[in-house]
Amino acid sequence: MNELEAVAHFMQRHGLLLVTGESCTAGLIAARLADVPGAGQLLDCAFVVYSPDAKKQCLHVGEQTLREHNLTSEPVAREMARGALANSLRANVAIANTGLADDSDDEIPAGTQCFAWAFRDAAGGAPKLYSETRRFRGDRSEIREASALYALQGIQRYFEKMHVL
């Protein structure tokens, strides 16, 4: 079983349905999951929000958050995950990512990726939210591929952490 199949199997066992809010990966997280047979039972929808305006309009990222924290930040990723989950009536887990795959920013190193995972509370409370920042090396495509796989693998890591707490 490869890494993507392992993620899909875990999601199936735990009844997880995904929505994504993707910036730097531009839909690659959802596309990689869709590569696995039976993915239609695992993926509800995906938002590709590359521009700041799209992040605000589609996923309700706050103007103040963008101004205070920069596009490549965990606070932005967390708001993207919450917004994606809020926009999906069926999904119970969201992944969001934002970052840089090249050296287009003088202050943030290429390969910096900010992720967030949000899990809908079955009781209707606020979603459980986790975030982290990682830096991947390689060319633009390698960084995006590594980011997408890492994001999907985070589902199991944070689901298990949530159930241990």
From TrEMBL:
It comes from Pusillimonas noertemannii. InterPro entries: CinA-like_C, CinA_C. This is PncC family amidohydrolase. Residues 5-158 form the CinA C-terminal domain. Keywords: Hydrolase. The keyword Phosphoprotein does not apply. NCBIfam families: PncC_domain. The keyword DNA-binding does not apply.
